[in-house]
Phenylacetic acid degradation protein PaaY (Marinobacterium zhoushanense), 197 residues
Amino acid sequence: MPVYRIEGVTPVIDPSAYVHPTAVLIGDVIVGPGCYVGPNASLRGDFGRLILERGSNVQDNCVMHGFPDTDTLVEEDGHVGHGAILHGCRVGRNAMVGMNAVVMDGVVIGTESIVAANAFVKAGFECPPRSLVVGSPAKVMRELRDEEVQWKSQGTAEYQLLTRRCQASLELCEPLTEVEQDRPRVMASEVKPKYQS
């Protein structure tokens, strides 16, 4: 995977984490235990520090960056969906940032909160724990229900399992030229999209 030192500062990846070979890590990046970093994610610690705490995930095509002398932090069990951008913000423990959301400088997303897909969370925004954050600019819509927090936690557990699955079996290969008979499926899961649950 492309990992780059800058001005003597080298990224740190815990041995129990999984970072996809196409992800790019530069400089002051700390990937904690059991974390997942997806394909084509860009974690640029060339100004501020980027931290992924235990069990968090940053999915494919996400970007993390920040101003000098700032921390961009995803706390334990944090979940950052496909294509999201985090810049100089803090994503609280067991919180989720939805697909293609943008979370700006100085933002604090409270514990067990969910930022909706495509939300734009403007600089300095703070929300209390268990908030549903929606819109552009984003606002707190309401408090999350227990079952919504449970659904989010199940999804994060699937990514923690994906970390172990990738470590155990993901490998570069040549494609087949035709679909084999009785083609197997990858792992089945109990987690369903929210609209089906």
Remarks:
- The chain has a mean pLDDT of 95.
- The two ends are 37 Å apart (CA to CA).
- The longest strand covers residues 42-52.
